[in-house]
């Protein structure tokens, strides 16, 4: 028989997990082509640390070639432009076309501006290693500028949106405060960190006490929260937010650093390629395939699976992406043998947000964890995704804590 061609688009959490399982169970019936625009994988969960300068690029990336088995897989570094499902073909930006028999789409997320004017032009995004590094370089140049301009706006940073991304970024910025202040030649408390958020009840996935715990920590570290203030526009060095809902009056907050973290959507390729999508996410069939094409699996941030408990799609997280990668590979292996794949089920192991390097808060299962011990749990999740695959017991048994003393 002719070798079947399996193409995986994107080497993020979902794509690499699928690759890992397919390679582990490879037989001589298929060949894999993995495509990514970078020659490295990055830990998207750690981008905020690169943005704040508390972590280097090297610490959150590894070379894709290190996880490739060349006897089964070919890696192509290229940008995906379009997927043509009728022709079973991928258009790459370099003009190359790839044919597939089976496809795994795991192209990840992009920043969502919700059409708010000025966001793309005047705010910094933090969606990959390049943009995260740009945030840090921007911060450093503002600190340097301050030494000769003494413009207080150079010492002011606004984080737009208080979701997990915004909260974790603010925590990392607090960790970086002393270092940044020393570049500007000012006292640490002279740096001003703001967060402007549309809703008043923050972090709705947590109960109020737990959400307050995290927020009050940041407040104690000097972060100023403006809540119930939807951002209406970004102008040069200015965040325009609605001050009063009744009258619609707006206010301006000036700052030389404005970082946009109000949410994400799936890759634009989904829209361009005619998938049935909303904000770049496709509501997949039970077995993670495209409802329109059974030889196409859609996983990670471009995929949506309904949570029957609240009738809303599960939020896009690394945890669910890893699980989807695993299940898609399993189902594809079954499909190659002419068998039916299994239904994807997901039970969140919990979610933990870091606030700086030494604190965190969140839920492990249904148990709230906070403070210094929680930051260990968080580090363990980020290191090995152990919580997603094993659970707390395994984590303690493996004695990972020693690594962090
Ligand atoms: P999000 O959608 O979870 O949060 C965005 C926040 O921005 C919300 O609080 C929203 O009210 C606010 N917002 C939206 N429009 C606004 C506007 N015009 N003005 C002011 N505020 C506005 O997005 P996120 O934080 O980027 O997270 C994306 C996904 O990644 C989520 O599913 C999240 O759970 C996940 N994530 C998880 C972790 C973790 O587990 N530690 C960390 C980061 C992200």
UniProtKB/TrEMBL annotation:
Residues 5-325 form the FAD/NAD(P)-binding domain. InterPro entries: FAD/NAD-bd_sf, FAD/NAD-binding_dom, NADH-Q_oxidoreductase. One of its GO terms (biological process) is aerobic electron transport chain. Its cofactor is FAD. Pfam families: Pyr_redox_2. Keywords: FAD, Flavoprotein, Oxidoreductase. GO terms for molecular function: NAD(P)H dehydrogenase (quinone) activity. Belongs to the NADH dehydrogenase family. This is Pyridine nucleotide-disulfide family oxidoreductase. The lineage of its organism: Bacteria, Bacillati, Bacillota, Bacilli, Lactobacillales.
């Amino acid at each position: 028989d002719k070798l079947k061609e399996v193409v995986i688009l994107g080497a993020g959490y979902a794509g690499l997990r699928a690759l890992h399982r397919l390679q582990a169970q490879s037989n001589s019936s298929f060949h894999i082509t993995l495509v990514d625009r970078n020659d490295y994988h990055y830990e998207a969960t750690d981008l905020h640390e690169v943005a704040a300068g508390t972590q280097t690029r090297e610490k959150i990336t590894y070379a894709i070639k290190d996880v490739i088995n060349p006897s089964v897989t070919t890696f192509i570094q290229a940008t995906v432009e379009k997927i043509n499902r009728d022709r079973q073909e991928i258009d790459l930006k370099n003009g190359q076309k790839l044919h597939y028999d089976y496809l795994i789409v795991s192209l990840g997320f992009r920043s969502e501006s919700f059409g708010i004017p000025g966001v793309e032009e005047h705010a910094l995004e933090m969606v990959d290693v390049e943009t995260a590094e740009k945030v840090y370089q921007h911060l450093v140049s503002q600190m340097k500028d301050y030494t000769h301009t003494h413009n207080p706006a150079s010492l002011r940073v606004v984080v737009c949106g208080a979701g997990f991304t915004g909260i974790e970024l603010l925590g990392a910025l607090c960790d970086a405060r002393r270092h940044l202040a020393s570049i500007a030649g000012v006292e640490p408390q002279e740096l001003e960190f703001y967060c402007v958020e549309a809703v008043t009840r923050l972090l709705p996935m947590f109960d109020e006490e737990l959400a307050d715990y995290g927020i009050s920590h940041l407040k104690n570290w000097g972060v100023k929260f403006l809540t119930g203030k939807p951002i209406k526009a970004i102008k040069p060095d200015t965040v325009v937010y609605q001050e009063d809902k009744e009258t619609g009056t707006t206010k301006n907050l000036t700052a030389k650093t404005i970082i946009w973290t109000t949410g994400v959507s799936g890759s634009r390729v989904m829209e361009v390629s005619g998938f049935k999508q909303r904000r770049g996410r496709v509501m997949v069939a039970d077995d993670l395939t495209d409802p329109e094409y059974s030889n196409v699996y859609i996983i990670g941030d471009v995929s949506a699976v309904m949570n029957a408990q609240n009738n809303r799609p599960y939020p896009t997280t690394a945890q669910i992406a890893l699980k989807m990668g695993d299940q898609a590979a399993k189902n594809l292996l079954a499909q190659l043998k002419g068998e039916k794949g299994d239904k994807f089920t997901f039970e969140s192991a919990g979610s933990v947000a870091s606030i700086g390097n030494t604190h965190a808060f969140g839920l492990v299962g249904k148990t709230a964890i906070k403070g210094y011990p929680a930051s260990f749990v968080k580090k363990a999740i980020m290191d090995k995704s152990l919580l997603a695959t094993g659970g707390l017991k395994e984590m303690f048994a493996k004695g990972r804590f020693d690594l962090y003393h």
